Queue: 2 jobs
Job 1
Amino acid sequence: MSNDDRIDRARKVYRQAVYGGDTSALAEAERGLDAVEADAALARGLILHARFQNAPADAGSPPAEDPAELPLFERALELYQALGDPRGEAEALFWIGCLHQFIRRDDETAVPFLERSCQLAAQTGDRPTRSEALRHLGIAAHKAGRLDEAREHLEESSRLRREFGALPGVASNMIGLAYIAAAQDRRADALATLDEAHAIAHAHDAHAIVRHIEQARTQL
């Protein structure tokens, strides 16, 4: 059932209750609206996250976190858990972990959310969410100096992304793999990986990824 259908259903149930005295479907309609609210909270959090990613830095400092973002993801998680929706729960857990890692630079807090997200996504067959969780677990491992583990996570994330056609995401992962290769004294592999990533990103008009690739070239 789509969110539009859930809202229409709630209106119909309202009329049945008010005009016909039939309140039997109110709880069901309320659960449907909880699902709508969960999806909307998650989507609104994504919009705020995209704004953060694209906000210019001020005088060398990172952009400010929107204080509404984390509560939106936490509300989505609460609702998905109450609804018994493990797929939604996995996605909300991922975004909570991503916020702690990417915005707050706090891997210690982020990693348990990412690990739980990865587990639930695997259980529910949610390859996109699992690929995201693996990517960010790889980032955490890279920052902790566990290069083989980081490479394994990013390669598995890339494998999943190729399966469901998220090739710009593959190119993004390859930037991380290039940095790992450089850290392992495999400079030729690093540069070849960036060349392949550039070809993929350019072919799919992933302009932001292309900019990150060019930045990586200057740092390797």
Note: The mean pLDDT is 95.
Job 2
Amino acid sequence: MKLRLTNTVLTAALSLLVAGAAAAAPVGVQILSATVKDKKIDGATVTLQKNGEQSVSANTDAQGQVKLSPTFADDAATLMIVKKPGYSNLVVKCPCNGSTYAISPVMNNLDGMRIVLNWGANPADLDSHVVYPDNHVYFMQMRGADAKLDVDDTNGFGPETITIDRKHVGQRYVYAVHDFTDGSNPNTRNLANSGAKVFVYVGQTLIRTYYVPTTGSGNLWTVFAVTEDGEFQDFNTLKGVTSHDRLQTSEFAGVGRAADLQAVNYSASSQDSAKRLNSQGEAAYHAGNLDEAIRLYQEAIELNGNYGQAYSNLGLAFQKANRTAEAMWANRKAIALASGSTAATVRASSHYNNGKIYEAASQWDDALREYRAAQAEKSNPTYDKAIARMQQNGAK
């Protein structure tokens, strides 16, 4: 008896064969240093992971290159994770094949931050810009007050890296990416199509990842701001500017303003899922599994970026894990998001926890500022004693 295949069956069979071929395609990437231009990173472990289950790993060679052969497709459901001792872990959404990524050496400053830009082959020249009072750090002015452009790249892929050694209290910072290649074309789509990604590191942790918007047009991507009190505010918007030879500081006057910040609404299902993850994180924290707790709190925040309790819990977990710079970042966001009947208590305790971190680092003036902020939110003899200790140490 002959088996007759219908067109539908044949089409389905061919689709499976094509999918299998695509899934078997190797994935090659290169890993560089985020802070030393063109430095290849050997011995980094690169893992491709699909839906948190299937995975394949290999180590980079002397050229920082690695080729992996996963049994699954290199698509948006795949994550790439890069690890090497002394560097912060990098986690990025794929597709990844043919890309170059940079990993950041662990930072030790409590108020430091590193911003790493990567993109595809085109446009050839994207530029990182950080603007804050009396300072504009970019390729024409590579140093500012306690900040510097570590790496400038002009031939595609990146990295382009800015390190802020110490964020100044009371000053607002704005970070943006300018498409220098298309500087005279404010209506370009090339930046939107560049695959650009921005990774923000605090301490030893990748705390924020931004992906360039793929809709709209423009040659300036305003990514985020850090407020006077150290809170991150996400913009993630494209607009067109007219400079060609360089991005003038004056053109930043109209971007990154707090008044332009758009409120993000999270669905009821996302909020419910975030609450469930937060509860799981609390259980992991009380069981002493800090890494798992941190992961769960971060997943909760991904689903609901306005979830103040998850940020507060994340700050405690980071502090318990001795990841103090990260703890301060989470505490500042918890302070900004605090609301309702417990708002004063959340703000006071978060300020107090940051004060303890500064005190442990012998940064008396910073500790005193945080303890006074806690006292202003809520009276507590513990805060009074802390203030007295800092004053005895000469803090003003």
Note: Confidence is low (pLDDT under 50) at residues 1-6, 16-23.
